Amino acid sequence: MTGAKRHTSPIARVGVVAKSGLRKAEGTLVELSAWLASRGLTGVFETETAALAGLADRVETCSRNEMPSSTDMILVLGGDGTLLDMGDRIAQENAAVPLLGVNFGGLGFLTEVTLPELFPALEAAVDGTAKLDQRRMLRAIVRRGDRVVTDRIALNDVALTRGAISQIIGLSVSVGSQFVAEFKADGLIVASPTGSTAYNLAAGGPIVHPAVNALVITPIAPHTLTNRPIIIPANSDVRIQPIFDSDHDQVIASFDGQFGVVLECDDVVSVAATERPLQLFRARSRSYFTVLREKLKWAER
Predict the structure, then answer these.
(1) 122 with 150, same domain?
(2) Which one of 72, 80, 186, 249 is the catalytic residue?
(3) Which domain, by its residues, includes 102?
C-alpha cells in the first residue's frame, strides 16, 4: 500500500496547478508551457494558474475540480496546502492520477522537490523512470443519527478541536468494537503516516515512516498527562463522539485543515483508511530521512 513503485502508465496530459496568487511562479509557468509543448505533451493549466502567468489564451485550461479527470498527472507549484487540496480532490473523484509537488512555500514535507529540480523531476515522471510513493489516505464520515453530515477524504489527518470559547472538551474514542478511553483535552488527531509530520507532530505525536501500515491517535494538550499518542493498525475503524458538559462547548471536525464542520452532541465521527492510496512522485535526490533532516534541522546547532 505505501511502498514505492515505478509509474508505468503513459503520460500525455500534464495538469499544472499553482498556489493562488503565487506571483513568483509566473516565469516558471511560462517555461513549463514551452517545455511541455517541446516534448509533444499537452499542458492542462488550472484556470487561475493560466491567468496568473498570462497563458489563458495559449493553453488548455480547466478548473481544479476537473483536473483529476482531465490529466494523466498533476504538477503542483506551491506548498503542502496546495498539494493537499489537489490530493483531496483526486481522492473525491476516486482517480489514480499521480502528483508531483514542487516547493514554493516554507517547510514542504510533501512538496519536497525544489525549484532547481523541477524539470529533471518532471522528465523522470513523464519518461517512466520516477518512483511513486503510495500514501495511505483517510476517509472520515460524520453521522448525526441516521444522517450523514459529511463524507470527506484526507491525506494528513482528521482533527477534532474545541471552539474558541470552549474549555477542555470530552471525546469518547473506540477502535472497532473496543472502547479506548474518554479523553479530556483540547482535541484529538487521527493521522496517517504521511500526516504524522503535520499537526500530529506539533501536538507531540510520533513520526511514522510512510511505508508503515498504521494510524496514529494523538490527544491535543490532554488534561491527564498519561493520555499519550497511540499507534494502531491501519485497518482499524476509529469512532469518536464528542461529550458536551455545557451549552458553551463546541467541537469542530476538520479534514487536512481544508474543510471543517461544527459537531453536535451525539454526532459520531468515523475514520478509516481508504482502499486507494494517493500516488506521489518521489524526489530522486533524497530519501525520506534526508527530507526529515532538512525540514526538521536535525543535528544542526
Answers:
(1) no
(2) 80
(3) 4-136+277-296
